[in-house]
Amino acid sequence: MEPHINKDTQLCMSLSGRPGNFGTRFHNFLYRELELNFVYKAFTTRDLEGAIGGVRALGIRGCAVSMPFKEDCIPLLDEIDPSAGGIQSVNTIVNTNGHLKGYNTDYIAVSSLLQSHGVSPGLEFALRGSGGMAKAVACALRDAGFVHGSIVARNRETGTALASQYGFEWRPELAEEETPGLLINVTPIGMAGGSGAEQVAFPEETVRAAEWVFDVVAMPPETPLIRLTRSLGKPVITGAEVIVLQAVEQFVLYTGLRPDPEQIGAAAAFAAGQG
User: Fold this and answer.
1) What CATH code is assigned to 118-234?
2) Which of 113, 141, 172, 248 shows the greatest Cβ crowding within 10 Å of its Cβ?
């Protein structure tokens, strides 16, 4: 069905410091596939309070939230789902008749990927980053049974708080002799369009010593860290995998419908520019 916007069309959107096209293409593809009267648009803002007020006032059905708004949006909402409350980080807002409820579908996606890839919770890990997404990852690691690991963050305040919350250690940098089996990047390092787009989140020798590398950055699908790891013949989990799984859960929250695996695969390929 060709898209036809009318007075009954429901708008969904995203708020991000660096808007991309993945969510827009993914959601709109599924709206067309399932013949839903929805449309999705990506935005950025310098006025978060005004933007969230607009979601409420204009009846926008759903809003995906990315860096750097995942924590700052919380005081502007009416209710927080347990998926977001435990980590105090929101990546999804659902508007039901002016009532804004925050969720976190990142946690669901990360937990699912650690399990489906068979990453052993016996591995020691190093998680670089201490923002909203890092909270979701740290919580997923703890709940999956990981007990030995470090939060690597230059910001002492947020780094120590995150490590303490989930029972891990904090350090500003990894020492050269440290060789964690699982490396996880949850910073903007390697993100397309950013100042560190060509940088690698961990030194090559550290990557060589690791068993698994997980880069949560989704754009580009292959970050410098993922390219390096694959060149060394090591297994990876990519941000592209995370963004698909969390987007599916958002779609369900917005529409009440769950696409089948074939539809999800087609939407993901289209969103990545392969369709």
Assistant:
1) 3.40.50.720
2) 141
Q: What is the pLDDT of residues 183-234, one digit of tens each?
A: 999 999 999 888 899 999 999 999 999 999 999 998 888 999 999 999 999 9
| Distance in angstroms (rounded) separating the CA atoms of residues 38 and 7 | 11
Side chain identity, residue 69: F
**Token match 């709109």: residue?**
28
Q: Which residues are catalytic?
A: 70
Q: Where in the chain is the domain with CATH 3.40.50.720?
A: 118-234
Integer CA distances (angstroms), 243 to 23, 64, 79, 146, in order = 8, 11, 24, 23
Backbone conformation region of residue 116, classed left if phi is above 0, alpha if psi is from -120 to 50, else beta: alpha
Helix (H, G, I), strand (E, B) or coil at 65: strand
**CATH domain 10-104+241-271 topology:** Rossmann fold (3.40.50)
For CATH 3.40.50.10860, the residue range(s) in the chain are: 10-104+241-271
User: How crowded is the C-beta side of 220, counted as CA atoms within 13 Å?
Assistant: 13
